[in-house]
Amino acid sequence: MKIGTFVIGGLAGAAVVLMIQRNQMMSAVTAGVGQNLKHRMNMMKDDAIEKALNMKFASSFRRSADIGRKTSKSSSMNEVGLGDVEKLIAQDEDVSHEVNSILEQNGQHRI
After folding, report:
1. Among 29, 41, 90, 108, which is disulfide-ready with 103 (CB 3.0 to 4.6 Å)?
2. d(CA 47, CA 19)
3. Model pLDDT for residues 78-91, shown as the tens digit of each residue
4. Numbers of helices and strands, H then E, in the chain
5. So which domain of life are we looking at (predicted)?
6. Is there a contact between 56 and 48 (Cβ–Cβ < 8 Å)?
7. Contact 27, 20 (CB under 8 A)
8. What DSSP designation does 107 have?
9. How far, in Å, CA of 68 to CA of 62, rounded?
10. In angstroms, rounded to a whole number, what is the distance separating the alpha carbons of residues 11 and 8?
11. Cα(67)–Cα(60) distance, integer angstroms
């Protein structure tokens, strides 16, 4: 790089900075742009860190989370399903007698 080009670029940059500092509207615009860039850079940094952590630990965390979801879904389905079965049994006396006889054969309490 030639020294002349470097000096001209430095002078042009200094002139732009002086122009922005003297004009309040330009100063406000550049401050807003600077804040926006800072916010976006921080968000990109946070996303990169999160992705790196997820790649490293994702398999173990996902497995434990999936197991937890499956057990909670199956237990809630059993609770709802048994309540519905009890309602159906209570609606018909013949079914109720059959269920009670089966439960008595197995040594369990009657419904």
Report:
1. 108
2. 36
3. 455 677 777 878 88
4. 3, 0
5. Bacteria
6. no
7. yes
8. T
9. 10
10. 5
11. 11
- Given a cut of 70, the residues of the chain with pLDDT beneath it are 1, 56-81, 108-111
CA atoms lying within 13 Å on the CB side of residue 78: 6
pTM comes to 0.36
Burial class (CB in 10 A: 0-12, 13-18, 19+), 4: exposed
Q: What is the pLDDT, as a whole number, of residue 60? A: 56
- Which amino acid does the sequence have at 73? K
C-alpha distances out from residue 58 to 64, 68, 73, Å: 10, 15, 22
- pLDDT score of 11: 94
Whole-angstrom CA distances from 54 to 11, 40, 48, 49, 70 are 47, 21, 10, 9, 21
Residue 59, Cβ neighbours under 10 Å: how many? 10
Q: Are 20 and 26 in contact (CB under 8 A)?
A: yes
